[in-house]
Amino acid sequence: MTPDITQIGKQNFDTFAAIQKQALDALAKANQEWIDCAKQEAKLTSTLTQKVTTANSIPEATAACQEWVSQQIELISSQAKKAFDESQSFTKAYAQIVTGGKRD
Question: Between the CA of residue 30 and those of 23, 36, 68, 73, 88, what are the distances in Å?
Fold first, then answer.
């Protein structure tokens, strides 16, 4: 092999490794986000359970449920935005792999 071909091969390998690392980092971030999401869900459910079981009246229990629904909607909205952002990062990284490392 000539030095030029060797250098081209090394550059291609380095580019692929960098893009693959970017893709794996995006997956690791998504995984951590889903773990955090599960923790938040568990905390909300625990709080609701505590409030409902200690409620002294039906209106108190209803208020706790309404608060929980409101918090769930906020959480789901936040999760949807994060999932969209993560999917874009993931797609971008894999698009670079498919196109051989060429960036826009």
Answer: 11, 10, 25, 20, 11
pLDDT in tens, 25-81: 888 888 898 899 899 999 999 999 999 999 999 999 999 999 999 999 999 999 899
CB 30 within 8 A of CB 17: no
Name residues whose C-beta falls within 8 Å of residue 61's C-beta, 6 or more positions apart in sequence.
51, 52, 55
For 1-104, where are the E strands, in sequence order?
none
pLDDT tens-digit series, residues 75-102: 999 989 988 888 887 787 777 767 765 6
Rounded distance, CA 31 to CA 16, Å? 22
